[in-house]
Amino acid sequence: MSSEPVLLVDDRDGVRTLTLNRPHRKNAIDAELWVVLAEALREVAADRSVRAVVVTGAGGAFCSGADISVPDNNHPIYRMRALTDVAVLLHEVPQPTVAKVGGVAVGAGWNLALGCDLVVATPESTFAQIFARRGLSLDLGGSWLLPRLVGLQQAKRLALLAETIDAKQARELGLVTWVVPADEIDEFVVDLSGRLAAGPPVALAQTKALLNDGADATLREALAAEARAQGINFATADAPEAFAAFAERREPRYTGRWTVHRPPLRASNETENGR
After folding, report:
1. Would you give the DSSP letter of residue 197?
2. Which pTM was predicted?
3. N or C: which end of the chain has fewer CB within 10 A?
4. Is residue 56 within 8 Å of 99, Cβ to Cβ?
5. What is the pLDDT of residues 71-109, one digit of tens each?
6. For the purposes of burial, counting CB atoms within 10 Å of the CB of 65, is it exposed (0-12), middle (13-18) or buried (19 or more)?
7. What is the Cα–Cα distance from 117 to 90, expressed in whole angstroms?
8. pLDDT tens for each residue of 109-128
């Protein structure tokens, strides 16, 4: 049994990288890793110093799905609850998320990547909704993600046939944002995540939520949500900073700092006297 942690966490310049670390199983996610990954995502959501998140895998693979090699005597409803936690947390973290995919991303592993906001792959990456080949149906949000990304017919093709596609096909279907040579992907993702981390954190969080919710909203609902979000953005220092940086021809420095001032507190003796 390896003493290595199943999830590696690295912080650098506002970017937190979460690396699935079970390379001997192509980073298949076992019961322990589901729990650790969920906890890591909770910590991300609560940590304002984290401005962007990268999810990747160790040892040349992204993730080969849920690990079914180890018997699990828990009732399936409890096993699925762990997957559900990860899918919801990944969807709802306010920070932009990037999946850095090298090698295989299949089953729940592919849906883990699709749950990220942006996906970067290499030409060697391969993808499969492998569930049907295991006598299973989709999980980790695949039934929700795929139709929204590729439309119902292509989603059915990928899920019912469980065929393996390469990075080029995935890019053509809109399931990969960029395909980058393997020897360039590290530098590419560092630059990409750095640009996201340098962005206005409150505005990016509002934009992410608007886009995630917009697919299920009417136009009026979307417009109302946009108006509420802009009110939040104008209460930060970032909008004035962006305008000032534009006027001064410099790069903006975003902090997400709240600029609405509270009224001064009354003196304690005035409070005690009911004034």
Report:
1. H
2. 0.91
3. N
4. yes
5. 777 778 888 899 999 999 999 999 999 999 999 999 999
6. buried
7. 9
8. 999 999 999 999 999 999 99
Half-sphere exposure of 109 (CA within 13 A, CB side): 31
| Burial zone of 250 (CB within 10 Å; 0-12 exposed, 13-18 middle, 19+ buried) | exposed
Backbone region of residue 231 per phi and psi (left: phi > 0; alpha: psi in -120 to 50; beta: other values): alpha
249 backbone φψ class: left, alpha, beta (φ>0; ψ -120 to 50)? left
Q: At 142, is the secondary structure helix, strand, or coil?
A: helix
Helix H or strand E segment including 154: helix 152-161
pLDDT digits (tens, 9 = 90+) for 179-228: 999 999 999 999 999 999 999 999 999 999 999 999 889 999 999 999 99
The predicted structure's pLDDT at residue 2? 60
Question: DSSP letter at 63?
Answer: B
Q: How far is residue 172 from each of residues 60, 151, 168, 241, measured CA to CA in Å?
A: 23, 13, 6, 38
What are residue 8's DSSP bridge partners?
A: 19
Both structure tokens of 187: 């530098």
Q: How confident is the model at residue 275, as a pLDDT?
A: 43
Beta-carbon contacts of 170 under 8 Å, excluding residues fewer than 6 positions away, are 121, 125, 127, 176
* Burial category of 13 from C-beta neighbours within 10 Å (exposed 0-12, middle 13-18, buried 19 and up): exposed
Q: What is the DSSP letter of 48?
A: T
